[in-house]
Amino acid sequence: MPTPPDLLPPFSAELPLVAELDAMLQAAFEIQGAGIGCWAWNIQTGEIRVNDEWAAIVGYTLAELQPKTIATWHTLTHPEDLRRSERQIARYLNGDTESYECECRMRHKDGQWVWVLDRGKVLIHDMQGRPLWAFGAHTPITRLKRIEEERDVLLARFQRLAEHLPGFLYQYRLRPDGTSHFPFATDAIERFYGCWPQAVREDATPVLRVIHADDRQRVLESTRRSAEKLTVWEARFRVVHPSRGVIWLEGLATPERLNDGSTLWHGFLMDATASEAQRAALRLSSKVFSATQDGVLITDLNGRIIEVNEAFTRLTGYRADEVVGHTPAVLKSGRQGPDFYRMMWAELKLRGCWQGEIWNRRKDGAIYPELLSIDLVRDEQGQPECYIGVFRDITEIKQHRYELDRATYYDQLTGLPNRRLIDERLHVGMAHARRRGELLAVCYLDLDRFKQINESHDRDFGDALLRGIAERLSAALREHGTVGRVGGDEFLLLLTGLRSREKVLELVEYVLEQARLPFAMSGHKTLSLTASIGVALYPELDLSPDELVRYADQALYRAKARGRNCLVVFASEEDSSNRARAELLQGAERALAQDEFLLHFQPKLDLRTGRIWSLEALIRWQLPEGRLRAPGEFIDALSGSALELRVGDWVIDEALRQQRSWREQGLSLPVSVNVSAEHLLSDDFVDRLREALTRHGVLMRDLLVIEILETSRISDFARVCERLRACRELGVLFSLDDFGAGYSSLTYMRQLPVDALKIDRSFVINMLDSNPDLSIVRGIIGLGHAFGRTVIAEGAESTAHIERLGALGCDIAQGYGLARPMPAAQVVPWVQAWGDQHRSPFAAR
Predict the structure, then answer these.
(1) CATH superfamily of 18-143
(2) What is the rounded CA–CA span in Å between residue 333 and residue 337?
(3) Tens digits of per-residue pLDDT, 235-254?
(4) Tens of pLDDT, residues 551-574
(5) Helices vs strands, H then E, count in the chain
(6) Do 18-143 and 296-386 show the same overall fold?
(7) Nearest to 270 by CA among 326, 213, 186
């Protein structure tokens, strides 16, 4: 809306009479167009004058707005816009702008906000030259604002769609004088030309400059022809991108003639680097068409075979004259349905290539698998020319893959699932049991006195017997579970789909009965066997898969102890053990509340330098009568309880608190703490750890080492790895505890991003007297170093242990041979005394 500077002459020397001012205001208000509100504002008194249109814009009459002062404007204007308006007025009065202008929201009488464009100028000054009267107008712009909002929504939607396109959309305009520019381009233009849309909005030179010198003239000529004849522009050419180097682009655009004689193209460009590489590869393939050992067929665009090579005839049995003119449908095996071929052709049309495995039929009717690649070939002008299919017979690969899967997941002797496959099915079975409210039974079966039978016959006899029992067990559980062989004469049974303990026991008894039936062996000899079975029931035992197997194994030992030929369900003593555990948990809860827990610290020796490398924090329970309870007496009871996490948090916090105290005394050593799998995977473990590190001022990295306990209870490797990485970002190191003691140790070391391995103490203690244990220690050290891990030996109970570990190349030693765990107050004097008295006799390797 124009401001009214020409309606009244500026006054500065003399003030007009009130009547004259009113007449001037009335004249100004009447001159304005319909629907535009006019105002006058006495800057010094706050008085305002407005016309009927001004009041109507906000839904009022002039009478309803009495009295009219600047407060009326303050009341009706949106607070945010009022502040912006005041800033604009101040800038104008300070001389920063030629006039005042601001878009504002005003509260309509019906409660809604309406938009106005508020504009004005000071036209009358007082005798001292100070601003006196300002005049202006309100133009309603609510409808315009709504149109802008709708435009912004549509533009945002378009931008979001454009972001997901594989290329970029653009408008390119060629002016009559030969200059050009891009009126519009999506941000993706930067990936193709190395410049942003703003840089080419007025001049296309930054784009034209990066077109490859060998292709630039061809692109310009094709653009000229398209503009001359108004035909679709289509081209494939190279661009020298400033950061990506040479890339191929492919696109098309539709032109239209504008009134000024210029030509405007609406187009799309996409990266064709990959497809160009494929074209080059296909051109090379055509040169070796006759010599290649892969079958090759060329078809026209309608899918009719034009040519085949000799390898095609050798692989399919068809001569060239038998297939030329036909479609490749003559090779169909029928194993893939119509949907398979529809998807294949859809991808071919979209990408220009397809690759995958397919089953085809030879001339003699034999069905075989092949790896097939199909590519669309274009001519030099970029027009589709033909399809080339290249394939090879992968029967041997398929057979090898099948044999590898069998070797990986199945027992070679019996054909039953092995331990790896059983573990996978156990995880799945537990999830199904939870979801369906059913029982899952893990049964460990062992053949009684099989060793004696096997030793009294040749090996073939024992193998035949194991195959026989495997077939019998599989038949017995065909509808209710899985049978696996886990070694020797041991079998692992998973019983699923059962609703009650009684049904489980009935089925296990039936398995025992089947095992007792005589076996007819070679030479018409019969043999009778018995079996013992240990059972662990889920979810009666709400445990991890590894624990269920372990408890089933323990139940099997009880069955053996009872005289064999029977079954034992784990937890027959569960009631009493649960009561004892409950009492222990109550005591531990009280101990945590009353500060009865404390930490002792055991040093670890760096065998390379002879210096103390770190300290391990070990929890103790100080009973009221003075006795110290070792962790072995209560840690297992905490496992799986909420108290386990709280005690674990206390250990970390107390270890860091003590470490800070030592730093204040001039001793800075890393401290390691033991953390269970459940504690590590608790929801807010990382946040609590971060808070503890911050609270105790741990600014340097590598001052806290977490030793992961109970690795057998880790089932979700992806989640554990993610948790370890999050902690390592805080500067925390990780050590894999008791390495070598579990069957999954190698898996854990390979998959978990830990910094150190801690050799299980049982191997270290016995290595001086046991060559097998010594070999294990030596092997773990070599394995750890091969994978870039620091190797720690726990259980160095004597100087001889430490010397042998140093000679073996072990990095760190821990044990009574160095020092027993000690109270925190003794650590600093002990470390100082060690530094004064020992200059590593073990540093030399």
Answers:
(1) PAS domain (3.30.450.20)
(2) 10
(3) 999 999 999 999 999 999 99
(4) 898 888 788 867 778 888 886 454
(5) 29, 32
(6) yes
(7) 186
